[in-house]
Amino acid sequence: MKKTKCKRALLAAGLVMAAGVAQAQYLRTSYFMEGTSTRIQMNPGLQPTRGYFNFPIIGSLNVSASSNVLGTSDIIDVIDGGDDLFSNNKLYDRLKGDNRLNVNFNTDILSFGWYRGKGFWSVNVGLRMDVGAQLSGDMFNMMRNMNGFAIEDLAGTQQKYNIANQKLNVSAYAEVGLGYSRQITDKLTVGGRVKVLLGLARAEMNINKFDVALDIPNMPSTDPSDIAGSYSEYASRAGEFRPEDWYGKGYSYDASGSITTTLKGGGMTFDNTGMIDDFDVEAGDLGISGTGFGIDLGASYKVWNNLTVSAAVLDLGFLKWKESETTIATVNGNENVIIDQNNYDKYIGGDFLSLERFDFKEGDPKEADLKTRLASTILLAGEYGLLNNKLSVGAMYTCRFVQPKAMNELTFSATFRPKNWLNAAVSYSPIQAGGKSLGVALKLGPLFVGTDYMFFGNNSKSVNGFFGLSFPMGGKRASNN
Q1: Cα 116–122–124 angle (5° rounding)?
Q2: What is the DSSP letter of 461?
Q3: Is residue 478 scored above 90 in pLDDT?
Q4: Which of 32, 143, 171, 286 lies in disulfide reach of 415, CB 3.0 to 4.6 Å?
Q5: 273-304 per-position pLDDT tens digit
Q6: Cα-based distances in Å from 150 to 87, 98, 153, 217
């Protein structure tokens, strides 16, 4: 029962986030807020008004998620749906042939920065997690049909499903970074950050091919006289399939795919036949299961007194995972069976999300891809200052190369920054939220909160939130003169 609930939760999570996380790792609305430390996370060539010290762990906390198919209201339906998940026609009708997912979480356990002359130094120790997935619409078709929902027009026929090109990528790692930026001329400032990465866990699933042919039973009778037993038994059966309805029906598949996990003290386990037995995690044994390196580069250039352009490339790098902590399971074959009482639970009645039913077998870790690249980001921005630079309007383009598909966003913003302790901004990012949300951010003393996608009660497909607690440290930025 616990495994079933866990797998349903994972499926719900996939539906929740299916497609592009509010794809920048950080809060885009804060990009032009000079009084905040968050701007250097998006461009190490930018500099805050003065040095800072972020409160440990909660001083720079960002969570974001979005979907190309489902909104926040749909996700509530998924969570509340329980066993009725696949009978929810409203939810099902929103699905597409290609349902993608990305989600991001990051926080700095420790981070601070300070000025020394015209240079600005920064140090951070953080935790990062990225999730990306691609789920086939045919998978949900098949799950509904096997459960007998909305089956009237398909009963008594053979259905074929193409559940290919399904992907799941999960990585969690720690980051230790050192950044430096310097004003080269009155107009040009450049900066960079080098990062040592410590891999904590990763999981990858790639289903390259999974073609299924399934004989659908005839519709169960809805006439009480045709069904033996009490009325309650009739009512529970009417319009739904019993195990006996599937006996004698054909089931065949042709599959090719792999699953890889890297986790110190855990991962996939296998039975004595080499088949997947379980997924084992011992929290006390968790540790470093990979190492890597990353770099961020950025610059800003003042074209005129009031016009500044900037650009950055973030997370250029990789993680190399330990072979000794890696497990891999593969499937490459086909099967053609007739359903009976002996195999019903494996092919029809069991948990559809159970990996055991697809005959994944233990593979050699040497076959796994032990080197994975980071989800890099390209950023381009322009800003025009007004009222002696106390107010500005700006635009920014970001492209984050997440898996399985790169995500783009265009953000327009207006920023009010009269004092270092008081900054406010409002933004509009039309692509990920379908033009249905606004972003807001506020720095008031040490407290900083914001979102790129404010939820107004509509079924928004993108949500994110940032919470920060930062205190000034050291001197202010040197004058440009």
Answers
A1: 155
A2: S
A3: no
A4: 32
A5: 777 777 766 656 678 889 999 999 999 999 99
A6: 8, 21, 8, 13
